[in-house]
Amino acid sequence: MTKFGQSGAKAPARYQGFNGQYIDGSRRPGKHGGVQVDTDPYSGAMLAETVMANRGDLDEAYHAAAKAQVSWAARLLAERAAVMLRSASIMEARHGEIGDWLIRESGSTRVKAELEWQFVHAVTLEAASFPHRMEGRILPLDEALKEAGLIASRSG
Which of 16, 63, 102, 109 is the most buried (most CB within 10 A)? Predict the structure, then answer.
């Protein structure tokens, strides 16, 4: 593994566009109207401004997610796994940028930012295996739990 932020490949242009809420497939200003300013905890410099969402935005996002879940569940296992693998690939391409954000936004040290990146990257790769691990079996209960009286027996 290379040093933090040095993948050897040319990194994509730094991401812009932290100024809206991502709702139903597009980024737009929230309807609340208030502005949340994200600042560097050390310098106080403004990193981003976001127009805040209101309850209607939240409801819209929730309903869009519920609708999207139906088509997501209908996708092939390999397609779902590919989404997570693509997420890990994006993280790899933006390794340095993600670390810079962790440092500037939350005050992480470079070492802490690297550990956080490694953990989230590993969890994302692990999540890519989940679709292929799903089964429809119901496994037996642990008998010790029954004996301790934590689970009612089947006979009554």
Answer: 102
